[in-house]
Amino acid sequence: MTTAPPAAPVGPAHPDGPAHPDGPAHPAAGLLEEPPPRFTGALPLWYQLAASLRAAIAGLDHDAPTRLPTEAQFARHFGVSVTTVRQALASLAADGLITRHRRRGTFANPDALRSRTLRVLGSADAIMAQQSSDEIQVLGRARVPGGSGPAARLGTAGQAVLIRRLRLDGGVPVSYAENYLRPEHADRITDEALIAAPITKILHNDLSLPLTRIDNAVSARTATAGLAALLRVDVLSPVLVSDNVTYAAGGTPVDVARIHYRGDRFTFAISLDIP
Q1: pLDDT surpasses 70 at 192
Q2: What number of other Cβ atoms are within 10 A of residue 6's Cβ?
Q3: What mean pLDDT do residues 182-209 have?
């Protein structure tokens, strides 16, 4: 059972406005890049929109602009009224996920986007052995700017290569991965190699890179429309997101990966020794 949304501003009192000189010049436009979900009549429209926006905001990169699109932009993108958008944003503001400033705009709350990090120590060999038997579909590769988004963690001044893959088990998608690599490494990796082995194994065995460490952070999110289509799940279904950075000798990042796992087909298990 859903409750009524917090009271939304009425008339011209909404805070959307030009960017403040001290704020980012461009809003987090990525929130409007995903196809809008199909809303149903089972729940209030504002509630469904708030859930969709909550998932999209939670998926923003930490270095992304925190200023959100305007109410009118949201209304056009999602095909709803401005009143519905205001109700949804009022709900997110009440939860502390966003803050609203008259004549400045609406901003994601950086403190609300931070989450506790689960750190797991162990060997990568066991993970690679589990992944090697899965079916892989290579969805494509493209050159992207190396100084923005996840690719920025590679520390390259020029471009990076984004490789997109879908992992299946018995023909059913279980995860969708985006790997950002240095061009000099990606150019040496064939699609046949990507189908046959995990990228970590390729970097270590085929390219003979002296890998030293993998940093991993896991968070729980809900599926956007685009991700739901890839994983064949409903929009807003639970997904487990694993952000990984693989380092070579000298502390050089060589692979930045973001992997989305279906919540109903994947279990994240750890084993801890007690000293």
Answers
A1: yes
A2: 13
A3: 95
- Name the strand (E) or helix (H) holding 175: strand 172-181
Whether 78 and 194 map to the same domain: the answer is: no
Identify the domain boundary among 113, 139, 159.
113
Within a domain: residue 273? no
Q: Please say which residue of 56, 80, 113 terminates a domain.
A: 113
Residues 133 and 36: their CA atoms lie apart, in Å, by 35
User: Residue 18 has what pLDDT?
Assistant: 44
> Which is it for the CA torsion 87, 89, 95, 101, positive or negative?
negative
Q: How many CB atoms lie within 10 A of CB 178?
A: 17
Quote the CA–CA distance of 21 and 46 in Å, as a whole number: 31
Q: Is residue 269 part of a domain?
A: no
For 29-77, write each residue's pLDDT tens digit.
567 877 888 887 767 888 888 888 887 777 676 666 678 899 999 999 9
Copy the structure tokens of residue 52.
Answer: 């969709």
Its domain, for residue 203, covers 124-262
3-state secondary structure of 140: strand
How far, in Å, CA of 67 to CA of 18, rounded? Answer: 10
Confidence (pLDDT) at 138: 96
Average pLDDT of the chain, as a whole number:
80
Judge whether 86 and 14 are in contact, CB under 8 Å: yes
